[in-house]
TrEMBL record, chain A:
Matching Pfam families: LytTR (PF04397), Response_reg (PF00072)
Molecular function in Gene Ontology: DNA binding; phosphorelay response regulator activity
Domain Response regulatory: 2-124
Organism taxonomic ancestry: Bacteria, Bacillati, Bacillota, Bacilli, Bacillales
Modified residues (4-aspartylphosphate): 58
Native organism: Lysinibacillus composti
Assigned keywords, A-Z: Activator, Cytoplasm, DNA-binding, Phosphoprotein, Two-component regulatory system
Keyword DNA-binding recorded: yes
Protein name: DNA-binding response regulator
Automatic annotation (TrEMBL), chain B:
TM region positions: 31-49, 56-89, 109-126, 142-164, 176-197
UniProt cross-references to PANTHER family, sorted A to Z: TWO-COMPONENT SENSOR HISTIDINE KINASE
Full protein name: GHKL domain-containing protein
The species this protein was found in: Lysinibacillus composti
Molecular functions (GO terms): identical protein binding
Domain annotation Sensor histidine kinase NatK-like C-terminal: ranges: 319-424
Gene3D superfamilies: Histidine kinase-like ATPase, C-terminal domain
Alphabetical keyword list: Membrane, Transmembrane, Transmembrane helix
Length: 249, 431
C-alpha cells in the first residue's frame, strides 16, 4: 500500500510523517510512504505517472491551493483510494468530505492529545479497506451511489425493491434505509437467486418472507411489509421458500 | 280547470323546492306575497297571453323575489339548479312512464305523481350532495359568479328548447337549434377560459405569498445576526479599554487570563455566527437560504449544534422552490424534533453541493439516540411516526412531492446514531 502525505506546515508534516512511519514499520511493514509533499503541485505531478492508495491531505495548504480541490483531482482518476483530511476545526466540512469526496475520515488538528491516536485509527481503517479491496470482489452487496459515496447494502439486509409510479425509479427497502435509484427491476431479479419478482412492480428477498397468503395474494415480510403477488408468481413462490419457516394460508 | 289545479300543484312543489334548497325561512306572509306578486300574475299571463311569456314572468319575478329575501348570490344559483332539475325530472318521468306501461291512474295524474316523487327525491339529493361544495366555495366570489353563469345559461337553454321550439316550423327549428347549441358552447368555452385565468392568478398569488414569507424570515435572521454584531462591537470597546489597563501595569499574567476568558469566548460566538452566514453565501437562492437560517436559529435555541456546508456556488435548483422549501422545512423540523429527544449529542449537519455528475446534492443529517428508535422502512407511510403526528405526515408529503419529479431521488438511512436524508437532483429532467 502506497501512502502520500501533503501538509504545508513543516513541523506538522514531520509529525504526521513520523507517526505513520513508526506505526507502519511495527504493524504493516508492506506499507510504503511514497511521497511527503508540501504543496498540491508536488502531489499532482507525482500522480501523472504514479498512483497511491492512501492520502493524508491538509485542507489549508497555503499559497491559494487547498486540499479539497486536490482531493477532487485525485478522485477524478481514482475512485478507490482512501483520502483522509487533516484540518483545523473551523473548516471541517463533514458531509462534503463524506459525500462529495468520499473521504474515509477527517482529523482535527486542534485535538493534540489524541492527534496521533486518531491518525493511527484512520490509517488502520485505510489499511483494512485496502486489504478488503484486494480480496474477493464485493459479491453479496448491492451498491448505491450517494454523491461520490458508495453505500454497500448486504443482500441479507434487503427486504424488497419496488418501482415507484413512473420514471424508471426503483426504491430499495432495507434494514437501515430506503433508497431511490434509476434502473430496471428485470436486472435486479437476475442478480441473485434470493431475489424473486413477485409482481410486475416488486422484487422481494425470499429470505425475509414470513407469511404467504394465497387467498388475498400477498406475502408478508419480516419487517411487516406486505407485497402483492401475481397469480403466476404465486405458484412459483411456494416451491422456493422453506415451508417450515413460512406460514402459508 | 284541470290545468289550473295542476299548475297550482306545480307551483307549490317548485316553491317548496326553492325554499328547501335556499333554506329561506318561510312565513305565511312571505308565501302570500309570493302568490300575489309572482304566481297569480304569471298564471294570468300563461292563460291569457301565452305559455312562454308566463314562464318568463314567473322566472324573473321569483328570481327577484327570492334574491330580495335572501340577498345572496347563492340563492340565484339554487333557483337555477332547481329549475334545471325540474326539466330533467320531467324528462325522466316520461322515461319511467314508458318503462312501466301500467295504467293505475289516468294519464295526467300518473305523470304528476311520478314527477312529484322524483322531483322531491332529486332536490333532496341535490341539497345534500352540494352542501359541502358550496361550503368550500364560501369565500370565493369569482367561483360563485362562474357557477351562476353556467347555471343560468344551462337553464335558459333548457327552457328555450322546451317552450320556444313549439312556435317554430321544422325548418326554422333546425336553424334555431344550431344557434342555441353554438351559443351554449361558446359561452361554456368562455367560462372555461375565465376559470383557467382565475386559477393561474391564484397560483401566482400563492407563490408570491410564500416567497415573501421566506424572504421575511431571511430578513429576520439577518436582523438577529446584525444585533449580535452590534452588541459585540459595543463590548469590543470595553474589552480594549480593560486590556489597556492590564498593559499599563505590565500585568501580563492577568492579561492572559482576561484574554482567554473574555475575548476568546466572545470572539468564538461571533465567529460562529459569521461563519454561518459566510457558509451560506454560496447558496444564492434567497428563499432556501432564509429557511435554513431560520431553522438554524431555531435549532440553536434548543441547544443543538448546526453545521452548514455549501462548498459550491448554488444558483439554480431543478425543482420548484416551493416544493424544495416544503421538503427542507419538513426535514429540518424533524431533525430538530429528533434532537430534542436526545440527551447527549445534539447535532444537525446540512450540506448542499454539486456532485461530479453535476447534480445537486442536499444532505441533512442528525444524531439520534438509538438506531432502533427509527423504523426506517415505515417512516414514509401515511401517518406513521415514532413520536407525534406531524413527523410521519410530513414525510409522506415529501414522498409524494418527490414522486412527481423524474430527476429527483431521495435516500434515507440510519447508521451508527446518524439519521441521513439525501436528496439528489439531476441537472436535466428525466434520468
Amino acid at each position: 500500500m502506497k501512502v502520500v502525505i501533503c501538509e504545508d506546515h513543516p513541523q506538522q508534516r514531520k509529525l504526521l510523517h513520523t507517526i505513520i512511519k513508526n506505526y507502519a514499520m511495527m504493524n504493516h511493514p508492506s506499507v510504503e510512504i511514497a511521497l511527503v509533499a508540501s504543496d498540491a503541485e508536488q502531489v499532482l505531478s507525482y500522480l501523472e505517472n504514479n498512483k497511491a492508495d492512501c492520502y493524508f491531505l491538509d485542507i489549508e495548504l497555503g499559497d491559494g491551493s487547498n486540499g479539497i480541490q486536490l482531493a477532487d483531482a485525485i478522485r477524478k482518476n481514482d475512485l478507490l483510494a482512501s483520502i483522509i483530511f487533516v484540518t483545523n476545526y473551523s473548516e471541517a466540512l463533514k458531509l462534503t468530505f463524506k459525500y462529495k469526496l468520499a473521504a474515509l475520515d477527517y482529523i482535527i488538528k486542534s485535538s493534540y492529545e489524541n492527534f496521533s491516536e486518531e491518525i493511527i485509527g484512520a490509517f488502520e481503517s485505510a489499511v483494512e479497506r485496502y486489504e478488503k479491496l484486494g480480496q474477493t470482489k464485493t459479491t453479496n452487496v448491492f451498491q448505491i451511489k450517494m454523491g461520490e459515496l458508495i453505500k454497500n447494502v448486504p443482500y441479507e439486509n434487503i427486504y424488497y425493491f419496488e418501482t415507484s409510479e413512473d420514471f424508471h425509479k426503483i426504491r430499495l427497502y432495507e434494514k437501515n434505509g430506503v433508497y431511490d435509484f434509476y434502473g430496471k427491476l428485470k436486472d435486479i431479479e437476475e442478480i441473485d437467486s434470493t431475489f424473486f419478482r413477485c409482481h410486475k412492480s416488486c422484487v422481494i428477498n425470499l429470505q425475509h418472507i414470513i407469511e404467504i397468503n394465497k387467498k388475498d395474494k400477498y406475502v408478508k415480510l419480516v419487517n411487516g411489509a406486505k407485497c402483492t403477488v401475481s397469480f403466476r408468481a404465486m405458484r412459483n413462490i411456494i416451491s422456493k421458500v422453506n415451508e417450515s419457516l413460512v406460514k402459508i394460508e | 280547470m284541470e290545468l289550473f289545479i295542476l299548475s297550482i300543484i306545480e307551483f307549490i312543489i317548485l316553491f317548496w323546492a326553492i325554499s328547501y334548497a335556499t333554506q329561506i325561512k318561510m312565513s305565511i306572509k312571505r308565501i302570500l306575497a309570493f302568490i300575489l306578486l309572482s304566481m297569480c300574475p304569471s298564471i294570468l299571463i300563461f292563460q291569457l297571453i301565452g305559455q312562454w311569456q308566463g314562464i318568463v314572468f314567473l322566472l324573473v319575478s321569483s328570481f327577484t323575489y327570492f334574491f330580495w329575501l335572501s340577498r345572496a348570490f347563492l340563492t340565484l344559483i339554487h333557483i337555477c339548479f332547481v329549475l334545471i332539475i325540474g326539466v330533467f325530472t320531467d324528462n325522466l318521468t316520461q322515461v319511467v312512464m314508458k318503462a312501466f306501461p301500467y295504467d293505475a291512474l289516468p294519464g295526467m295524474l300518473e305523470h304528476y305523481c311520478i314527477f312529484t316523487v322524483l322531483f322531491i327525491l332529486c332536490i333532496i339529493i341535490y341539497k345534500h350532495s352540494t352542501r359541502k361544495i358550496y361550503k368550500l366555495l364560501e369565500e370565493m366570489k369569482t367561483a360563485y359568479i362562474l357557477i351562476l353563469i353556467i347555471a343560468l345559461v344551462t337553464m335558459s337553454t333548457f327552457y328555450i328548447n322546451l317552450y320556444l321550439t313549439e312556435y317554430l316550423s321544422e325548418d326554422n327549428l333546425l336553424k334555431f337549434n344550431i344557434i342555441t347549441q353554438i351559443t351554449y358552447f361558446t359561452i361554456m368555452l368562455f367560462v372555461l377560459y375565465l376559470t383557467i385565468v382565475n386559477i393561474k392568478k391564484e397560483n401566482h398569488f400563492r407563490r408570491v405569498e410564500i416567497e415573501t414569507a421566506q424572504f421575511t424570515d431571511y430578513m429576520r435572521s439577518l436582523e438577529v445576526i446584525n444585533n449580535d454584531m452590534q452588541k459585540f462591537r459595543h463590548d469590543h470597546a470595553n474589552i480594549l479599554a480593560s486590556m489597556q489597563g492590564y498593559i499599563e501595569v505590565n500585568d501580563f499574567e492577568g492579561l492572559k487570563k482576561y484574554f482567554k476568558k473574555h475575548i476568546f469566548s466572545a470572539e468564538e460566538d461571533t465567529l460562529k455566527r459569521n461563519m454561518r452566514l459566510a457558509n451560506l453565501s454560496k447558496l444564492q437562492i434567497t428563499g432556501i437560504k432564509g429557511l435554513i437560517l431560520t431553522k438554524t436559529l431555531q435549532a440553536e435555541k434548543e441547544g443543538i449544534t448546526v453545521n452548514i456546508e455549501v462548498p459550491d456556488v448554488i444558483d439554480e435548483l431543478n425543482m420548484n422552490i416551493i416544493d424544495i422549501a416544503r421538503i427542507l422545512g419538513i426535514f429540518l423540523d424533524n431533525a430538530i424534533e429528533a434532537n430534542m429527544q436526545n440527551h447527549t449529542d445534539k447535532e444537525i449537519d446540512i450540506a448542499i453541493f454539486k456532485s461530479r455528475s453535476n447534480s445537486i446534492m442536499i444532505i441533512i443529517e442528525n444524531t439520534i439516540e438509538d438506531d432502533h428508535s427509527v423504523k426506517i422502512d415505515k417512516i414514509f407511510n401515511d401517518g406513521f411516526s415514532t413520536k407525534g403526528e406531524n413527523r410521519g405526515k410530513g414525510l409522506s408529503t415529501v414522498r409524494s412531492i418527490i414522486n412527481t419529479y423524474p430527476n429527483v431521488v431521495l435516500r434515507t438511512n440510519v447508521n451508527n446514531g446518524v439519521f441521513s436524508q439525501i436528496i439528489e437532483m439531476a441537472k436535466s429532467e428525466g434520468s
